[in-house]
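Regression test case RT-17, inverse folding.

Input:
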């Protein structure tokens, strides 16, 4: 396949959380933003509350809308099977995940695709601030020079300016030794 993108333009990717949208609303957002391939990055691609987003149903709907569907949740999902990705307390450690070969292969495959087609990463959580598609995948991609934009429920785009929480400056901590206010 020939590279269809201008090499002078930075690679970019969209992300979207399906939340409890009707499937037609989700497809409308994808079409509005000219998405060609929907990449499902859910570790467990089903939804008890929104069965239209279970893998088979979603893939059918996406294909019927003349888009392509690709499942990469086994490589880029937010709940990897590899126990080495978790801290002692059982929480997912994004830094550990980023070091794993399966994750790096998934990122490399994704970046290769970004050079060919317009891609949108799909997960369940609408708010990217609370989702691994920003906290893990977006962080990795931004560090590699990829422009990451999140499609919000309204259809507006929210650009990822940093590589995620680990790259953000912490809020300043108040000092215990600040001078007392005068006159009060």
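Golden output:
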């Amino acid at each position: 396949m020939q590279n269809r993108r201008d090499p002078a333009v930075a690679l970019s990717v969209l992300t979207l959380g399906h939340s409890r949208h009707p499937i037609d609303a989700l497809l409308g957002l994808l079409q509005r933003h000219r998405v060609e391939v929907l990449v499902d990055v859910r570790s467990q691609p089903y939804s008890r509350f929104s069965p239209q987003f279970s893998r088979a149903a979603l893939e059918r709907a996406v294909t019927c809308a003349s888009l392509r569907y690709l499942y990469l949740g086994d490589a880029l999902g937010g709940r990897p099977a590899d126990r080495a990705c978790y801290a002692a307390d059982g929480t997912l450690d994004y830094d550990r995940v980023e070091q794993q070969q399966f994750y790096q292969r998934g990122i490399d495959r994704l970046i290769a695709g970004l050079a060919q087609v317009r891609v949108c990463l799909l997960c369940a959580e609408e708010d990217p601030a609370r989702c691994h598609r920003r906290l893990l995948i977006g962080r990795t991609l931004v560090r590699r020079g990829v422009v990451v934009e999140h499609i919000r429920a309204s259809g507006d785009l929210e650009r990822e300016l940093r590589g995620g929480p680990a790259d953000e400056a912490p809020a300043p901590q108040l000092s215990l030794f600040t001078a007392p206010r005068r006159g009060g």
